[in-house]
Specification:
5-stranded antiparallel sheet, 11 strands, 34% helix
Length: 302
């Protein structure tokens, strides 16, 4: 059996168990024989076990069995399928690829965003992360006349707004984020580094919007007022993982989040136009007001 076919079966199995929450192998087979993949033949127990083990090894998704409740199977770590985890991203990407590959006749009617380019750096950086090897990059910063060389320990990578970023740590202990798009050359060193056991990539970026973490910008409680249908968008796609709804009124809903209000966060607020207003802190409201005034001057007739 080819790898693409196996991945389709893995995806189907995970989605079937996740949607059912608790399901026996007989119930799985009743659903399985109704698919084109099955050819009308039930999934043998040994095949199910192999798929179960492969799903755990490849995706880190655990299919557990409740022996006390009729030998029903369930996803043992369902959070990975709802959070911004690598497992969820991989499974979602493969699921979408499967659906689209089965719908080639509609290819001109299914429009996608451009796939982010890693410029060939993704694989060597991941390899350096696995082997804990230092890397050296030539990096051409926006606005700079020439590239500059940096040596760092590759701590993590992050995909944000269709761009890949690497978080590197200097020998001094300082962290810095670099975009793959501006790397001109990359060399993997034979020298190794010791990864800080207390480092948590998700925690490192938890107070940020995007990839910008500026220590000089403190975390603040930001209160936003969304007008009209904008509140519906914010409920479906929170502006930050800490966002919670704290009140509403005639035509508006208030939300709060705890975040570093850096320039990229301000840009997100501005992109919502008159539909979103900063209530607190006042310093951020004043900053947004000034940015709007500066933007307005660009449209004044001269």
């Amino acid at each position: 059996m080819t790898t693409p076919i196996l991945f389709k079966e893995y995806i189907w199995l995970v989605n079937t168990i996740y949607q059912a929450r608790n399901i026996t192998l007989d119930e799985i087979n009743r659903k399985w024989v109704q698919t084109e993949m099955s050819g009308g033949v039930e999934m043998a127990r040994n095949t199910f076990i192999r798929h179960r083990n492969a799903i755990e090894n490849i995706f880190g998704i655990f299919i557990e069995c409740d022996r006390k409740n009729g030998y029903k199977y369930y996803i043992g770590n369902p959070k990975v399928l709802t959070e911004d985890s690598i497992q969820n991203w991989m499974l979602s990407t493969l699921s979408v690829n499967h659906v689209i590959s089965e719908s080639l006749s509609l290819q001109k009617r299914i429009l996608l965003e451009p796939i982010p380019s890693s410029k060939g750096y993704l694989e060597p950086i991941i390899d350096a992360m696995k082997k804990k090897r230092l890397i050296t990059i030539d990096y051409h910063k926006y606005g700079a006349e020439e590239s500059k060389e940096y040596q760092m320990a590759p701590y993590c990578i992050k995909l944000y707004h269709r761009r890949w970023y690497i978080l590197g740590r200097y020998e001094s202990g300082e962290f810095r984020v670099f975009s793959f798009d501006r790397i001109k050359r990359l060399i993997t060193s034979n020298d190794t580094f010791e990864l800080d056991e207390d480092f948590d990539a998700e925690e490192y970026f938890s107070e940020c919007y995007g990839v910008v973490r500026m220590e000089e910008v403190p975390v603040e409680r930001v209160v936003l007022r969304a007008y009209g249908d904008e509140s519906l968008y914010l409920r479906d796609l929170p502006i930050h993982h800490s966002q919670v709804e704290i009140g509403d009124g005639d035509g508006y809903t208030d939300f709060e989040c705890y975040v570093r209000p850096t320039l990229d966060f301000c840009g997100q607020i501005l992109s919502r136009g008159c539909r979103l207003q900063v209530l607190k802190p006042q310093s951020l409201a004043d900053k947004i007001h000034q940015m709007l005034a500066d933007a307005l001057r660009n449209y004044e007739k001269k």
